[in-house]
Amino acid sequence: MATVYTRPLARLIEQLQHLPGVGPKSAQRLALYIIKRPEEEVKALAMALMEAKTQVGVCSVCFHLSAEPVCEICRAPSRDSRTLCVVADSKDVIALEKTREYKGKYHVLGGLISPMEGIGPDQLHIQPLVRRVSQQTIAEVILALSPSVEGETTTLYIGQLLKPFTKVTRIAFGLPMGGDLEYADEVTIARALEGRRELD
Fold this sequence. Notes:
It is a single chain. The chain is an alpha/beta fold. Helices cover 44% and strands 14% of the residues. It has two domains: 49 residues, Helicase, Ruva Protein, domain 3; 128 residues, Dna Topoisomerase Vi A Subunit, Chain: A, domain 2, CATH 3.40.1360.10. It is elongated, with a radius of gyration of 20 Å. The termini are far apart.
């Protein structure tokens, strides 16, 4: 790469390749696009990246991405605080919000139980979830985790922990085994929410 591109351009291409879904050709295309843009535009992009990195943390209640101590969804009085949807990641919150079907609140686990990757229940936000459900009046917890081996393991584990406190349901999936929530379209997700069933 260093022999084809001048060093600063090679470094930019290399860094862009670290982004998900960006291969060498896409990284090259993006890099060439960026260096052709006006300097003010590139500075604005760089500033937006740094601001997002330094200012965005997680909500102290639900662990969704937030620039505030408590996120907008948790603060919204219009949301149904008696319904809690448990998801693996913030990208799943975004996917569910796009459907405009779900009116409750969320709890983001920060991943799924995966012994192969060394991720156990203690590495996830499971204990805060149990505390939340045991201390608040929650009528239903909806488990919206992907239909993968890790998703199933996490669903069963959390279901057993929460059953003593409230009704626990799981969304119905119009997705293939191993499919991710974030890649499903809004109609599929909305139907999955509507077709949820109680955990055995």
